[in-house]
Amino acid sequence: MENVIAVVDRTEDVELRGEMMERGVMEMIAPDEAPVIEGISPLVRSNTVTVENSPVKSGRGGDEAGIATSINPGIQEAKAMQSPPSSKPAKSTQDEEGISSASSSNGASTTTNDRPITPASPAPESRKRIVIAGLGMVAVAFIEKLLKLDERRNEYSLLVLGEEPHIAYNRVGLTSYFEHREVERLYLNPQSWYDDQYKLGKLNYMLSTTVAGIDPVGKVVTVHSTINVPATPIITKYPIAPISGDAQPPPVVNTIPYDILVIATGSSALAPTSTPGHAAPGVFLYRALGDLDGLITYSSQPHIKGSTGAVVGGGLLGLEAAKAMLDLANFGKVVIFDKNKWVLSRQLDEDAGRLVGEKIRQLGVDLMSEKRVKVIKTKKYEVETGTEGVVGVEFEDGGEMDIGCICYAIGIKPRDELARAAGLSCSERGGILVNDELQTSSPGIYAIGECASWNKETYGLIAPGVEMADVLAFNLTQAKSHTSRTFKRPDLSTKLKLLGVDVASFGDYFADRDGPSSVMVPRRGGKGGTQQVKALTYKDPFAGVYKKYIFTADGKKLLGGMMIGDTRDYIKLVAMVKNKKELDVPPGEFILGSKKSGDDGEDADELDDDTQICSCHNVTKGDIVQVVKDGSCKSIGEVKACTKAGTGCAGCMPLVQGIFNCEMKKLGVEVSNHLCPHFAYSRIDLFNIISVKKYTTLPEVMSAIGKTPDSLGCEVCKPALASIFASLHNHHVLSTPHAHLQDTNDKYLGNIQRNGTFSVVPRVAGGEITPDKLIVIGNVAKKYGLYCKITGGQRIDMFGARKQDLVDIWTTLVAAGMESGHAYAKSLRTIKSCVGTTWCRFGVGDSVGLAIRLENRYKSIRSPHKLKSAVSGCVRECAEAQNKDFGLIATDKGYNIYVGGNGGSKPRHGDLLIKDCPPDEVIPILDRYLMFYIRTADRLQRTARWLEALPGGVKYLREVILEDKLGIAKDLEEQMSVLVSTYFCEWAEVVHDQAKQERFRQFANIDPKSASGEALATITPPPESENEKELEARLVRPVDLADNGIEIIQERGQLRPAYWPSGSGSEGIDFRSLTFTGPMSWEPIIHSSKLETSDTAPTASVAVKRGDTQLAIFHVRGRGYFATQQMCPHKRAFVLSDGLIGDDPSKPGQLWVSCPQHKRNFELAPPTSTTPSSDNSCHPQAMAGGCITDPALSVKMFKVELRDDEMLYIELPPVEELDAVLGTKRWIVRDGEAGEGPFGSLDRKLEKEREERMKGMKGRKGVKVADGGSPPKTSPGKKEGIIVGGGCGVGVDW
Hints:
By secondary structure, the chain is of the alpha+beta class. It contains 32 helices and 52 strands. Helix 13 runs parallel beside helix 15, helix 16 crosses helix 18 and helix 24 crosses helix 27. Its EC number is 1.7.1.4.
């Protein structure tokens, strides 16, 4: 049976499902109303799955034929943001990761009198995405704070990734789980809270998801989601928690983009990896719910009941673990092994620690101090279970003890491995280094909680983490209008109940031992600082109470202390330390007067509002008072939910209750990977569906699987689908069904430049070119005034070609035997090479010959992104093959093939795919590699990012490409063979096709052979003796300024467009509201045949010229004609007619044209009046000409009619009046608008240095520094600089 890799999110199409299943395709079902296919479990996220149709070999995974054994690289990159809040939320699923397709327009807020202007909330697609790695207590604290602070601005959309299968729970109260066994009671927020935030479009989350990698440059994270799903469908928008079962699905891998990344991965429990027996059944850590579940299950076994349960570690976690074992009631005895002399040695001194130890023993727990476990003894229980288990321990001092279970709580370590792998700076002692703003060494990435190292210190308590969350949430939301906050040395005060014993430490509680760290007491160095403090100690052995308070030597300030047994003064004392106020009573009264405080909170009214009540969540008395006074909280439960007070360790609850009672008495009485809004599928899904169903046009695809069958698509899905069609069928991109899908570069077979002209790049395979072809290139550049540059890819690029000159230019090049270099396409660009054995004495392989063969094989093949390659003739690597999408290095046995490398913003060294590959095997291996990439990469995903996110990385790729693990190697080779065999030069086709040439007219209503359509001015190379003035005089055939948009200047003997100014120059002009005083008249502009459409090509557009004004006319089949100005006001670009027309399925009737340069989308609608609607409503007519993606911009719309004579008539004002406001000359970007050139200052410095050098050099002439700064200015009597076609383009798409 033929194997096909395919993925669909919905399979309502029974025919499609049947055809796919017949061909051996397994479907992956997303949770949005997905039907169930017998024998296939629905996964939370869609991805490509490989189906094995042959018996599965040992180690391959799966136990019978037809079972999914591995995930193919369906790397699904989330692109847009969450849907906005509405009364009826748009349908959205979890695999959208909070990414919905609805777009909206923002209207400006109206204000009256002196009321401040409240900025409108940004549209969801303009919000910044914050990805939070980790879903623990600190992460939830950050989310809650940010949601609250961002409520007005609505700047952010949040996606939180949780490694555990649970939503955030109270880790501090973990021990209580043994009492009730209900995980929901530990949740910090109920499930409904997450549901509500999701529906509001504010928060999305993924459970059982591990962040596997961070790309700080590309701003994406790679995540692995391992979710064991049930055999029956669970229809939910949220991740499904793991359930019991043997079948474990393979991990789902995604790359998720972010604007801001917050790392809150916390810490992990230290494991005794050096202790023999540490991995045996019966050895546990004490950190997460999973640890507790394992301990519960293990201890319930018959052979364990009644045995001794042991805990290693006498710290906070160790005592918690001992309490847990007691609560289980399965052990006959519980014992603690502590390597220190007393428990809680980090929080208590020896006297306090020994007192706690005595209390622990009184509760029935054995405590063995200064004990270190050397070996964990195990044996097999043949009769009971047949498995191995713990039976005892051997100590380093030689003693032994029989035990049935052992739990380690010996400390924690920051989880910084993710940051280290991403190149972020980390502390040698562990933790991600952050500054006072919690930012890591990489901009846009922050770390909070136990994983963060501030001043090279990490904190294992919840309170510092919550404080970090507060600081970061504030700065992200409020720092624009407030002074930003900084994180300061945190208060490490702790109050807990451990094994029934009240324990607290606060402030600088070891100041008497280590010297004061507080700024209140200047340290004199070393322990000499202890002379600056005095300690007051109280010990009651009968009541089990111990108190030690540390003061400055003069007794005027409290520095810190510790309390055992009686901790009722804790809140007051912590506040006193923080306030750093001088005491108004003698120190001794703190002991004598402590009994005045009560657990019932009767003295709560005496506390200041800024007194911290809950240290876990940094809640003050004022926070509690406020929510009670304003009526938002009428019960203690509502106070806890609103402020989070008491939801951590709960030690503050008596005081919280007291404050609540007091205030009530005074009063007398709560991350999709979908391609775009038009499809509920990723690029990978669409590729496979189109491949299976053999769709060839956008209307076919839209009708079959689009959200709205008659939709036009948009600037995202149109080029993506065009690329898929080209990769599968290799039809000409300018054929009738496909031309309207192409972005501007493919539409005109050249990269559009910032002045609206295009590049001309003939292919120079392998970098080898003949002198004759060099001469042709030179003549073409000379004739058409093109700027020339040798590129890093070993070819010659020519810039500045006008659209109407492209056909003539390429006619000359094609006649000389040259082909398109596809520099405009997402396809193979170049294969660079050194000279290899052709000339080099060190060469061991013919690198030029192989490069030429490979480039001629793979040229023109469309892929998800551009491809670059290189071949080096030896290990000296002159061609830099290891940083290419695929590169080859010659060896004495063949070629080493590297894949997944790239330069650019995030350079990546390629991975070795195969070593010493025989030359005959190079092409089959590359065929498989490239086709596998084309099939499985996401939209605009380079091979480097694809390989990084590939499950199993290059190892898995080797299995697929070299070992044929998936059984598709033959299919991949055959598919590539089809593409190679159907190759044609796209420009050669245009040169011989009159119909295609019509697309390259500048103005549809002007004869291209007229004067205004002549070629650009050109420059003839002058003799060496010719000066600059004579050079300028040699310019020939200057073009009328009316046809152009940016002034052309001379620089280093070549022509280039003037620099753009920092602003557009059209700021503040609302083109929509332009009015005219002269009489409006209907004028025939163009015959309707110039804008023909069809069922397969439903849109068309042209540019026309009337006087000095350029207009763009659009035809949308079934919706009519639209006319607007040709100039995009963003950069004064005369290019709108070249833009793609799109619509939004969630807003019927809305159309827009997307500027091809910077994707500003302007709404197309017939104007009903000369002034837009004052209410700025979303009705298409009211928004005619408005910019959907940038509300500050707009264009003028004109009424247009098709009349009986088949001419299109446009209602226009007099020519002079229209030219005065929209004429090309009015908006020309002129030299000097940008100010001094970028090198003006540098050139003056270099010239001055040159002059100084020349003073001491006799008989030698200085050489003038090349003008790289301000271009020569036009003076009276000289020609003005030449102006060429308009445009607000982007740089060269290398």
